[in-house]
Amino acid sequence: MAKQRKKGLILWQPMMMRMVYALIPLMLASIYFFGWRSLLVCAIVTAAGFLTEYIFCLSYKQPVSSAVFVTALLFGLSLPPTLPLWMAVVGVVFGVTFGKMVFGGFGRNVFNPALVGRAFIYVAFPNHMNSYWFDPFRGFPAGLVRFKSALDAVTQATPMSVMKEGGSVPLQDLFFGSTGGCLGETCALLIILGGLYIIWKKSADYRFVVSGLAGFLLLQLIVFTAGAENALHPLHALFSGSFLFGLFFFITEPVSGSQTNEGKWIYGFFYGALVVVIRSFSVWREATMFAVLLANVFAPIMDFAVRERKKKRKAASK
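-> structure tokens emitted (318 positions)
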């Protein structure tokens, strides 16, 4: 395993940097679909996140972890294209502060910092986080020659909203990203490729992903087959919304998730099943943020139960 190394103010962690590399194609895709403003959003939240952690690290007398770049990019790519920049800054500062640094910094956080920040602005600014959605640019050069989406492109709904209200969205649009949604969550193809890359490089544990996918597809199939109101076909449900983004990049976060191998299987399955339950039976059209944060809450309990079971088995075998 590659060693961490301090260079200047930053502790460079190979695992975290591979996560950044996997997110870069999603950031580039966000420019193509939504214009160059998306790059500005990512740059500003990265600078704000780094500065926030740096201020805390001065008192902690420790270097800034390169994990802050992962937090900032995940946060930025989970935002709507038109969110005001100052709201994005508020969110990432809150996430780094109360999702990570108040616990003592990297390796001590209980919750995923990016989603702590997103949850805060989701509650504080609900209209901007839920109501202003834009169709992506289509046809080359798309957003590569534009700064942001035009006002007349407003659609007021994400694919998840459209399908839950009885509409339809072509599967190929969901797969290739030609839909409205958050900056980095629309292109299932790039999310899957990036996710497979971090699993291959061992920056993410496959147990989270396999069990999360199994939990999601199994429960979604049950709900769909049972004829639950507004239940989506499993394939459409899989490629719409932010489930895949959460599956590869949020629940695989090595600190806030389960630490034991058995716990990782339970944790992933819990996340996948919870997304289906929240999507299908609550007022929230999207569920990834809530599902991940709830899974973070139960991760220590899962690991405790696994360890206690091992102790009992060991004692019984003597």
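The two ends are 36 Å apart (CA to CA).
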